[in-house]
Amino acid sequence: MSINKQLKIGDLTAKLPIIQGGMGVGVSRSSLAGAVAKEGGVGIISTAQIGYDEEGFEKNQAACNNRAIHKHIKRAKEIAQGNGLVGVNIMVALKHYAEHVKEAVAAGADVIISGAGLPMNLPELVSETCRTKIAPIVSSKRAAQLILKMWAHKYDRTADFLVVEGPKAGGHLGFSREQLNEIDTMDYDEEIRQIIACKEEYEKRYEKKIPVIVAGGIFDKTDIEHVFELGADGVQIASRFVATEECDASESYKLAYINAKEEDVQIIQSPVGMPGRAIRNALIERVEKEKEPIKKCYNCLAKCNPVKVPYCITKALIDAVKGDVENGLVFCGSNVGRINQMMSVHELMQELVS
C-alpha cells in the first residue's frame, strides 16, 4: 500500500498524508511545523500559551499569545518554502478560544484543528468563504455525529476534515479513566470504521469529500498502513516529532522522551478536567499527595478555578518545555517508550513513507 500520496482538504493539498500533531505549551511552534510542511506534510502549531517567551507575557498573556500566533504562522510558512500546509491546534477549553481562532485565520493558517472539548461554534468563527479549513477532534462516533449534526443544523455547513483521536494519544484524552484502563480490550478499529461511515451522509449532502485523519498511537509505517486499510485518508502523529532536531522544545524535554520507558507513562487528571497521558516525574508524585501552591493565574482555561485545581497547568507546561522536566508536565503518547534516538524531521518523514 502506497503511503506516499497526497492529502486533499478541499482546494488545499499536502504532498504527504501526514499531519504533525499540535503540542503545547511551546513544543510545536514554527520550527517544527515549518519543517514538517517543508517535507510536504501538514505542520501544526499549538496556540496554547504560544507566547510564553514573548516580552511582557507575565503581565499580558492574551496580547502576547495573539502576537505569537501571527509570528509563528508567518515564520512556519517561510520555513516551508511553499511546500505542505501550516495550521494550528486550538483547544476549546482555552479562555481566549474565539480570539485564537480569529487571529489564526487573520494570520493565514491553512487549517484549524480543534479539540479538548467539542468545537460547536467553530464555523461561526471561520467564514466558509475564507481559505482556512476547519476540523474537530473526535474520539467516538457519538461525538462525530453530534458535531456534524449541529454544524449542519445551525450553520448549514460541514467539517472540512475530521481528526479521530484514539485512546493511545498523548496529552488530553477524550476518554474516561475506565475506558483507558481497558484500552487493551477496546476495539477502536470498529469505532474508526463507524466514524468514517457516519460522515458519508454529510459528504453526500454537501457534495464534498471529508477526509478522516486517524491519530493516537501511530508510530511507524505499519500503523499508517493499518489505518489506511480501515478507510482513513491520513494520519496525525505527535510524539515522534518531539525527538527531532527541529522540535521547538528544549533538549532536556526531547531527552525525556528518548529516555522514557513504557512503565514511566501514566494517566493523570489534568486541570482541564480531562484525563491526560504524561511521563511520571517529581511533579506528578507531589500532586498525588497534595495540591501544588498556585502563586499566579495565567488566565488560560475557561473553567479553571485556581483554588480547586491541583496545580497550574500553564506553569507546569512552561517549566517542562524550558527544560525542567522533573518539576514540569511532560505530556506524551503511549508509544514514547519506543522512541530511542534523535533525528531530523526529514529523516522521520522519509522513514514513515518510504
UniProtKB/TrEMBL annotation:
Q: What domain of life does the native source organism fall in?
A: Bacteria
Claim: Oxidoreductase is one of the keywords in the record: yes
Which keywords has UniProt assigned to this entry? Flavoprotein, FMN, Monooxygenase, Oxidoreductase
Question: Can you name one GO molecular function term for this protein?
Answer: nitronate monooxygenase activity
Q: InterPro entries attached here?
A: Aldolase_TIM (IPR013785), NMO (IPR004136)
Role according to the record: Nitronate monooxygenase that uses molecular oxygen to catalyze the oxidative denitrification of alkyl nitronates. Acts on propionate 3-nitronate (P3N), the presumed physiological substrate. Probably functions in the detoxification of P3N, a metabolic poison produced by plants and fungi as a defense mechanism.
The protein in question is named: Probable nitronate monooxygenase
Q: Which organism is it from?
A: [Ruminococcus] torques
